[in-house]
Amino acid sequence: MLLRRIEELESTLTLRACGNRTELVWVRDFRMTEGVSFDPLSEVVAQEFGNLIARFSP
């Protein structure tokens, strides 16, 4: 299970006014168990980012 590979996780979404648009800044800090592959987490991050784009795109 992916969650057992993550030791610490902090995620922050910030919205900032940028002229007539809004800028989304997504920061995710995490520490994984030593020796564990990053590949499964990168797939999750890519899917979450795709979901954000789909949700907030015009």
What does this structure look like?
It is a single chain. By secondary structure, the chain is of the alpha+beta class. It is built from one helix and two strands, in the order E-E-H. It is elongated. About 0% of the residues are buried. The mean pLDDT is about 80.
Summarize the structure.
The chain is α+β, with helices and mostly antiparallel strands and 58 residues long.
State Rg: 14 Å
Question: How many DSSP-defined strands?
Answer: 2
Summing up helix and strand content along with how strands pair, one would put the structural category as alpha+beta
What is the helix content? 25-40%
The major β-sheet equals: 2 strands, antiparallel
What is the string of SSEs from the N terminus onward?
EEH
Question: Strands of the largest sheet, in order across it?
Answer: 1-2
Question: Which stretches are poorly predicted, pLDDT < 50 over at least 5 residues?
Answer: none
Taken from the alpha-carbon principal axes, the silhouette is: elongated
Average pLDDT number: 82
Count helical runs.
Answer: 1
Percent strand: 35-45%
Distance between the amino and carboxyl termini: 35 Å
